[in-house]
Write a structure and sequence with these properties.
homodimer, 290 residues, alpha+beta, 60s Ribosomal Protein L30, Chain: A, Phosphoribosyl-aminoimidazole Synthetase, Chain A, domain 2, 6 helices, 28% strand, globular
Chain lengths: 290, 290
């Protein structure tokens, strides 16, 4: 292990890795990417590895945590070239370390058929923000302002299978800045993986509040002309957060330059709607179940 | 989470689980089971879940560690019944808790085809033995005695696909007793997953010693008449360990009643052989690469 990760006492190669535990609360998540489900056949393996790692790192960011270490598995189609398997391992390790998250263990196995989908999992372990504040989905309160980082929609290019769903930057630094700056006033947070509408509805449900989003306020990526696409596409991996009333965020994160846009508010009640002109649309229906 | 696991501050349901880190060094491992590779189609899902959990728990046992918490994924064939997915989750949780290892997170996703193999992964996190001694594969020394727990061979019933490979008991209690009793004199340990010969060769290689096993000493399960089967079958999940010369183990573990059998010794040199009558056979060739 590089000296950059002194908490890794023993990396891959034995029955288990050995790691010094973090001082604060430990955050744990696991996610998977499956060929033809989360990425198209022919996607460069380096981008497949990147997405597998980034999805789990994004879950850490969504709780305000910092990466500590990770483990990965690869279930390879029969006949997968050894050189490709090696390249995949190199890429997984590289991307994990890119986000300061040493890869301490893993397992590769071969699936029975050549037609079986390449399937990767990444388990990521993080440590809570130094303040000890862990931002869940359940902390939103009536009166909270709802913000989103960056811009939404169009993350998957239907023509090529490529796009931001493969190259997004997990919002670790924005999350850290938010907690450094606003502390406990950051009440709830989630990363937008299944669509703004659906993920906002998850915060509303977990927190016992009603969330009202303004369609016209939703920041859209270049080329996304319809707010419905921005609200429903998913795979943005932007942060959606609820901050205390009166806690006004600047228009951009001073650390990274990412946009911070107010898209709505939390109220007394339940459910999540997107307000468009005179209409209120059910937000939970807008999105995907990945 | 049950009150039995007070270190689990927040279980599944948010972006991450939140866990109080263990006091001692943290052990981490991940393993996977793939349909038609690690279990036969039609295997009861409860036994599939059991095997997925037990394999990772066995890796903790092989380092002398105690389970702390775990995460799991399931990649399900298209069309997998929701009731089966629910049953699988219940079984994974049940078996993890059976070994005192709360399941704190997970992910289910669907694979593109109905013919895709059901694939489970379990990431298990443990805490080192209270003495702080972590038993690796690399600590064997010339003169060490080599022991194995239980009996070997015939774990997979070719007629039914069932057998001990689905129902083995990870040797957590035996490992704890060994460390409680012999401490640092337990020099090296591994769980026998790929065959006694191959796994003994791994200890020899990692430790820089030569290991000589006696074919006639290898304990065989009922119905296993050939020592070659016992040495090469794999999927036994028994512990293979090297203890300091003069450190004589009793014939059975007083805590669990598991047999403890001396099967060989470590010498100066390299490689691993099985001695049968006047012959020395290369042990590394006996086994499987799961």
């Amino acid at each position: 292990m590089p000296a950059a990760f002194p908490h890794v006492l023993m990396g891959p190669g034995d029955d288990c890795a050995v790691v010094r535990p973090p001082g604060g609360a430990m955050l744990l998540t696991v996610d998977q990417v499956i060929e033809r489900r989360h990425f198209a056949p022919g996607t460069p393996l380096d981008l497949v590895a990147r997405k597998a790692v980034a999805r789990s790192i994004s879950d850490l960011a969504a709780m305000g945590a910092t990466p500590w270490c990770a483990l990965a598995t690869g279930a390879l189609p029969a006949g997968f070239a050894q050189s490709d398997a090696d390249a995949l391992c190199v890429s997984i390790k590289k991307w994990a370390e890119h986000w300061n998250c040493p890869m301490v263990g893993g397992d590769l196995a071969t699936m029975p058929d050549a037609a079986s989908p390449l399937t990767l999992t990444v388990t990521a372990i993080g440590v809570a923000h130094p303040s000890g504040h862990v931002v869940t989905r359940a902390g939103a309160k009536p009166g909270d302002q709802v913000y989103v980082t960056g811009a939404l929609g169009g993350s998957f290019d239907r023509a090529t299978g490529l796009g931001r769903h493969l190259t997004f930057e997990p919002r670790l630094r924005e999350a850290a800045w938010l907690l450094d700056t606003f502390g406990e006033r950051v009440h709830a947070m989630i990363d937008v993986s299944d669509g703004l509408g659906r993920d906002a509805a998850r915060i509303a449900s977990a927190s016992g509040v009603r969330i009202e989003l303004q369609a016209s306020a939703i920041p859209r990526n270049a080329g996304v002309s319809d707010w419905r696409v921005a609200a429903g596409d998913g795979e943005d991996y932007e942060l959606l957060l609820c901050v205390e009333a009166g806690c006004d965020l600047p228009p951009i994160c001073p650390v990274t330059g990412a946009a911070l846009t107010r898209v709505g508010a939390a109220r007394v009640g339940s459910g999540c709607v997107i307000c468009h002109q005179a209409e209120e649309l059910d937000a939970a229906a807008m999105g995907w179940d990945h």
